[in-house]
Amino acid sequence: MKLPHSYYSNQDVLFLAQDLLGKVLFTDINGDVTAGIIVETEAYFGVKDKASHAYGGRRTDRTETLYSHGGVSYVYLCYGIHHLFNVVTSVEDDPHAVLVRAVEPLIGIDIIELRRKMPASKPAISAGPGSAAKALGIDRSLNKKDLTENEIWIEDHGIVYTSEEIVTGPRIGVAYAQEDALLPWRFFVKGNKYVSKPNKA
């Protein structure tokens, strides 16, 4: 059920960013298990991508996680407020990653509602990467975790979307990346209410 290390070692981050749609992201925090269906992602293409933290081969204490072999979590704080959860992919020293931008609440919904102080019927509960992470209790303590272990992991529940059901468009909030900001490397499930805005390509 859990995705194995071999899945994450795929060097085609654009393929994985789309393939992760429909997979189920789990956390187990002090015995509280919550999960959501991944419905929106963005691909970050390693050292060549101006939007990536690893652009140009940049290596810092924060970005070092990106250089791990695929299958670990990369969690960082954005604007000092929101934790963002990324899946490190590819092989060691090839720092690709997929940002999970939105999930559809699936398991432990009562806990998710408590964390977000709103009902699961509200899209804002887990739309957008900061909200998705908060809904699942993800913070920096879950950085650099093995995604095949028991704190944070992803499962395949057989949910598959056709190419007609997946919308592609430019990534959000990466204007600093100049021409790379226009690349259609954001993927989301058409018509899913938990997708962050704008939910059009």
TrEMBL record:
Q: Does the record bear Transcription in its keywords?
A: no
The organism's taxonomy opens as: Bacteria, Pseudomonadati, Bacteroidota, Flavobacteriia, Flavobacteriales
Enzyme Commission number: 3.2.2.-
Q: Its Gene Ontology biological processes?
A: base-excision repair
> Which protein are we looking at?
Putative 3-methyladenine DNA glycosylase
For the keyword Translocase, the answer is no
Q: Which domain of life is it from?
A: Bacteria
Any single GO molecular-function term of the entry would be:
alkylbase DNA N-glycosylase activity
CDD domains xrefs = AAG
Instruction: Show the SUPFAM superfamilies listed in the entry.
Output: FMT C-terminal domain-like
Extent of the signal sequence: none
Keywords annotated in UniProt: DNA damage, DNA repair, Hydrolase
Q: Matching Pfam families, A to Z?
A: Pur_DNA_glyco
What species is given as this protein's source?
A: Chryseobacterium sediminis
Q: Which InterPro entries match?
A: Formyl_transferase-like_C_sf, MPG, MPG_sf
